[in-house]
Amino acid sequence: MKISICIPVYNAQETIEDLVSAVEQELQGYELEFVLVNDGSKDKSESVCDLLALNNDRVRFISLRRNYGEHNAVMCALHHMTGDVAVIIDDDFQNPPEEIIHLVREIEKGFDVVYSFYAEKKHNLFRNLGSQFNDRVASWLLNKPRNLYLSSFKAIRREIVDEIIKYKGPFPYVDGLILRVTDSLSAVQVKHHQREAGKSNYTAKKLVSLWLNVFINFSIKPLRAFTLFGILVVVLSVLFIIYLVIDKVNNPYESQGWASIMAGITFFSGIQIIFLGLMSEYLGKHYLTTNNTPQWTIKKRSF
């Protein structure tokens, strides 16, 4: 079995060389290749990775022209891997290299995709809350099994990779593509360490962008939810009109409340604006997709 270690690299000049070395040490019995994708790093990651590729025949290096985001970088790595199994791992040592073998052994049992999960995560509170929210959103929108944690540290069989990379849109979500293709999924518990250097690159803006990506590109359930909400509002409005008519008949000289009417108008105007914003997101993403916005553009490659 040939294993392709796919690593999206962002500001990892201090860790990437040690990570490659540690993985080679842990998987000595396997044929290996490393696919490093520099996602527009602001430090010296590009030169470090380029030197790695020159000195190590196992390393394939691609540098992107700007920062496209983790999932775009992973898709680029999957396009350029040649192994039987792709193992996606972060560049910061929070996923210990010695845990890769557990994912590989689970793949060898016949599963298409093996996710990792953690007894305790070493992220900060904001990142953990964001992960929990993303997990619940994915369960609703993508019909993800509730007991499955969508970790970025995972192993994917080659046949599934070949299906995933057929997606050509500019807003990939790797886990969403996996759930479209297969339900042969498994999970193994692994350790989770503190970052060895730097800080998390997941800002609030990036997390919101990821959630919108899941909402808009991989499900129409938000539109259905607004349709059901609209039906509910119509039913409640009819009942309210009936109530007002009856109340007016019983109390013909009593004036209706201006404040309640304005509150109702304001509330439903807000709902309409939210729905228009949601529709604009769908149309905007569709426009960018049909306009052939690239998933990535390559600045240089070394392999």
Describe this structure in words.
The protein is of the alpha/beta class and 303 residues long. The chain has one domain (2-219, 293-302): Spore Coat Polysaccharide Biosynthesis Protein SpsA, Chain A. The chain has ten helices and eight strands. The protein has helices spanning 16-26, 45-55, 70-80, 100-107, 125-141, 158-164, 174-181, 204-217, 221-250, 258-290, and strands at residues 2-9, 31-38, 59-64, 85-88, 113-118, 154-157, 185-190, 298-302. Helix 1 links the parallel strand 1 and strand 2. Helix 5 (125-141) packs parallel to helix 8 (204-217). The model has no long low-confidence stretch (mean pLDDT 84).
List keywords for this structure.
303 residues; alpha/beta; Spore Coat Polysaccharide Biosynthesis Protein SpsA, Chain A; eight-stranded mixed sheet; 8 strands; 50% helix; elongated; Nucleotide-diphossugar_trans; transmembrane helix; Glycosyl transferase, family 2; lipopolysaccharide biosynthesis; cell membrane
Which structural class matches the secondary elements? alpha/beta
CATH superfamily: Spore Coat Polysaccharide Biosynthesis Protein SpsA, Chain A
- Rg value: 24 Å
Q: What's the helix-strand series?
A: EHEHEHEHEHEHHEHHHE
CATH architecture annotation: Alpha-Beta Complex
Query: Reading side by side through the largest sheet, how are the strands ordered?
Result: 7-5-6-4-1-2-3-8
Number of helices: 10
The CATH class: Alpha Beta
- Biggest sheet overview: 8 strands, mixed
Low-pLDDT residue intervals, each spanning 5 or more residues: none
Helix content: 40-55%
Mean pLDDT: 84
Number of domains: 1
What is the straight-line distance between the termini? 21 Å
| Number of strand elements | 8
- Proportion in β-strands: 15-25%
In CATH, the topology is named Spore Coat Polysaccharide Biosynthesis Protein SpsA, Chain A
What is the global morphology? elongated
